[in-house]
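Worked example 4.2. Below are the chains of a multi-component assembly; read each line carefully before continuing.
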Amino acid sequence: MQPEKLHKLGAPVVEVRDLWVDLGGQNVLQGVTLSVPAGQLVALIGPNGSGKTTLLRAMLGLQKVSAGEVRLFGQSSLEAALPRIGYVPQRFNLESNFILSVREFLALRLRENRRWFWQSHRQIDQRIRGSLAEIGVEALLDRPLAKLSGGQLQRVLIAFSLLRKPELLLLDEPTAGVDLPGEQTFYDLIAQIQERHRLTVILVSHDLSMVYRHASWIYALNRVICCQGSPQQVMNAESLKAAYGIHVSPYGHHHDH
Amino acid sequence: MSPRTDITMITEPFMIRAFLAALLLAPLCALLGVFVTARRMAFFSDTVSHAALAGVALGFLFGLADPTVPLIGVSLLVAAAMYWLRENTELFTDTIMALLLAGCVAVGIIILSLLKSRPADIQAYLFGDILAIGWVDVGLAAGLFIIIGPLVFARLNELSLITVQEEIAHVCGVPVRRLNYIFVIVLTLTVAITIRLLGIILVTSLLVIPPAAARSFSRNLRQQILLSLGLGLVGGVGGIVFSYQLDVPCGPAIVVSCIGLFLVSLFLGRVRQRRAFAPPDPLGRNL
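Applying the procedure described above to all two chains together yields the following structure tokens:
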């Protein structure tokens, strides 16, 4: 897709203007500006420590910024934007002493359903059913959240996000700790969901081949936006060297694409 | 020790107060304990309770007959200091807690040593004493129970979400920072008021043992909360009975009865687990 085409797609869902973030005396982000139009799957790539996660956290108000602005859905109020956002964080460890089942975890997402504690499983399942079938987590409902594998947890987190019908989905290295076949299935699932729900997706990823296959636009970040463009434009040796500082093979160049 | 009958156990006013305190505080601690253990805050509660020794000592220093007010005051102050140090220094949380715990105990002991007449019931604060539980303590326990019990259930979604992960909770619209402050205040007040029942040294056990015992038997949070409440109640009331029958401090008696329940649940949990994973009988008998 050509850049002009991308930016003609209507009002941007996410706009970041000249964003600076200071972490422990280091400028992790140095004047980042980017724009994500509605309905696109945008990937953020870059080496470790390049500020990808920090940028995502800044968009969500989880990170204090020293200068610059983040606008979501055309407004600067984060509170108004949060109900329209789904977020899948990097893999995290949950204390195994906390026996929250997948069913209960999903029920926590339904704001109007605060009484899940007193409801039967069938009553809860009726409310979470829509998201369950789509993501294929029905079999996990009775499992404790803390005992899921990496891939299972990521699917549950996607199902959790979709329950509130978000317009924007942010994923931070969602396949860290997931095996290769699982990773591929996961990205296919994200692409399907994105298309079906006309979601805007921002994906932080290390996996260049997956990004090449599924993203409609790529921002390569290394404290600043080093380059941006369609996968075909960004996935070449020069652009990747600009972002990663060393020669990186754009091994994701699948010929079927 | 004079022989005691069951009738006097439930008719003596001090026993009525002790039972009431246990009935109110033990389930409350067990309920909060589910989140305390999941959020690894047991050491926090230990620090707050040990800090109360400095409060008790200050109370005696100022000649107060009942040091409840300085006890609660110092506990809240230490909880606030812990939060401030965590947010404004680069020290590890457990270093901060160890520092405050040792500091407060040291100050408490120095003050107590300087007092001309050693207060007789300091042991009651260390290990709990059924005779020392007054109507004021029961009133405080009731107030706490009436406010905090429903509050936890009303905010169960938010509390569970911040226990899973604070970032996810934030994106779900939970005011994470405010809720964390409220949780710390609630926990500090509960620990401070439960000290009368269990004593400074053992109060954390009522937050930790019932949820741990419930864990081996639970498949989900609802079961863990309900079982923890039940086990806390049985352990608390059972401990008061032991304390009365054996004439021992009620803190250790409650802890021992809770540990007994924990061991039983561990054994039964293992048996249940083994049954669940047992290979099917080759002859197809329904064992």
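Take a moment to check your reading of the output against the notes. The radius of gyration of chain A is 19 Å. The interface with chain B takes residues 57, 60-62, 79, 82-83, 85-87, 89, 92, 94-95, 97-101, 103-105, 108-109, 111, 114, 116-117, 142, 144-145, 157, 160 of chain A (CB under 8 Å).
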